[in-house]
């Protein structure tokens, strides 16, 4: 059964850090590019960061560049999102997604992704 499971969310003060994990099962993980997205009620889902299947290529939304770092460990079927210098505007449900569109593929757009996790809540508040 194909599955993506996010973890690591929680409540953190402004300026703090969290590391999200996305663990995959049921498919050939190292064929897939992975994206992290976030959504708040009433707003569209926003692409935060993405990484190609090999990990050679990454991209970030302007709003998180230089604060967030995406990485992957294909031996553990896991992608990480290290989030530093968190701001209240980072509060959202964070989702990971997987898509297979060729070696080197990655995208901050949601539509090409085939599989999605259930999300983990991140709240940045004092």
Keywords:
single chain, 7-stranded mixed β-sheet, mainly beta, 4-stranded antiparallel β-sheet, 0% helix, 126 residues, 11 strands
Describe this structure in words.
- By secondary structure, the chain is an all-beta fold.
- It has strands spanning 3-7, 10-12, 18-25, 33-39, 46-51, 58-60, 68-73, 78-83, 92-99, 115-116, 120-124.
- The strands form 2 sheets. Strands 2, 4, 5, 6, 9, 10 and 11 form a 7-stranded mixed β-sheet that branches.
- Strand 5 (46-51) and strand 6 (58-60) form a beta hairpin.
- The chain is globular.
Brief account:
The chain is mainly β and 126 residues long. Helices cover 0% and strands 47% of the residues.
Give the fraction of residues assigned to helices.
under 10%
**What integer value in Å does the Rg equal?**
13 Å
| Morphology call | globular
**N-to-C SSE series?**
EEEEEEEEEEE
Largest sheet: 7 strands, mixed
- Which class do the helix and strand fractions yield? mainly beta
How does the SSE layout of this entry go?
Elements: E1 3-7, E2 10-12, E3 18-25, E4 33-39, E5 46-51, E6 58-60, E7 68-73, E8 78-83, E9 92-99, E10 115-116, E11 120-124
Parallel strand pairs: 2-11
Antiparallel strand pairs: 1-3, 3-8, 4-5, 4-9, 5-6, 7-8, 9-10, 9-11
